[in-house]
Write a structure and sequence with these properties.
Radius of gyration: 25 Å
Distance between the termini: 59 Å
Number of strands: 0
């Protein structure tokens, strides 16, 4: 009976595995995204962009020892920022966020425009370069806004403060 049970388990497992492997082999990983208002952006992406959030655009700076103003302000006491440094970082952050909100709105609008021509089936190949350039130039400006803020912030910190920031953020060399 033990051998028969083992054989039955193996056969059933193989059949279940084979069935699982052959179900919907052409199913798109994007099926859950068809209801988005802008297909290339999730609601969370749109919210992040509209509030001036970083959207991961400053990772080259953040992960290479250039602290971000928002995180730095949240950890100002642990890092030992002086009052003068806090004021300067607040100013950098306010300027960055103001500019990022404006550019984020432009980027979302450009992505919405690109999505709309596909959605209403009015897209012409001749108009694609301009639509894509508009969105990508905006994304590039957004990235510059965020990366330059990291660069500005690093210039007012000591090496010890940067090391403490990296330690608190969990970054190791």
């Amino acid at each position: 009976m033990n051998v028969v049970s083992t054989i039955a388990v193996v056969l059933l497992s193989n059949a279940a595995f084979a069935t699982e492997q052959h179900q919907h082999p052409t199913m798109s990983p994007y099926t859950e995204e068809t209801g988005r208002q802008i297909k290339s952006l999730s609601e969370a992406d749109i919210d992040e962009l509209m509030r001036g959030g970083g959207w991961g655009l400053a990772k080259p700076a953040e992960l290479n020892g250039y602290p971000g103003p928002s995180h730095l302000l949240a950890m100002k006491n642990e890092i030992g920022l002086t009052q003068e440094q806090v004021h300067r970082v607040q100013s950098i952050f306010a300027d960055m966020q103001r500019r990022a909100i404006q550019e984020g709105q432009r980027f979302v609008a450009a992505e919405r425009e690109l999505d709309a021509v596909f959605q209403d089936r009015s897209v012409a190949e001749s108009q694609l370069p301009a639509l894509i350039d508009k969105a990508e130039e905006s994304r590039s400006r957004l990235r510059m806004i965020h990366l330059s803020a990291h660069l500005e912030v690093k210039a007012i910190l000591t090496p010890e403060q940067i090391a403490k920031y990296n330690e608190l953020r969990g970054y190791r060399e």
